[in-house]
Amino acid sequence: MLTNRPRPRRRLLDIAPGDTVLVIAGRDRGKTGEVLRTLPRERKIVVRGINVVKRHTKPGRSAGGTRAIQGGIVDFEAPLDYSNVMLLCPACNRPTRIKHVVLENGIKALECRRCGEPYERTRRTEQQ
Ligand SMILES: [Zn+2]
Q: Where are the domains of the chain?
């Protein structure tokens, strides 16, 4: 299927790697964890220690990586649906949503809908 067709620009997920989220549905409901990866097109995210499954692997290379992996059974964090988690605000430490605001100087910023504090996002540029 061709996917090159221009499509209406949808806002990507409000959750980024490095954020802390609370799981609100599913097997790991109530747990919190750090977001490792996001899959915006599938609206899924991977959270450290959440949705862990055992995966049987053959010796080879890890998917998307250059690191050689041993064969055997490994713990693997399966992606979970974006709608099953909520962002945790570092300022008020409560599950929240992010509000997009534009500051007077024209800079776009994020803030917590609950406490109104600017949401400080730690950009992870180093490899995970
Ligand atoms: Zn807050």
A: 20-88, 90-123
**What are 74's strand-pairing partners?**
55
Tens of pLDDT, residue by residue over 29-44, are 999 999 999 998 899 9
Q: Which CATH number describes the domain made up of 20-88?
A: 2.30.30.30
Give the residue among 104, 95, 124, 99 at the shortest CA–CA distance from 20: 95
As residues whose CB is below 5 A from the ion ligand 1, the structure lists 89, 91-92, 112, 114-115
pTM: 0.71
Contact of 82 with 20, CB cutoff 8 Å: no
Q: What tokens appear for 18 in the block? A: 């490095």
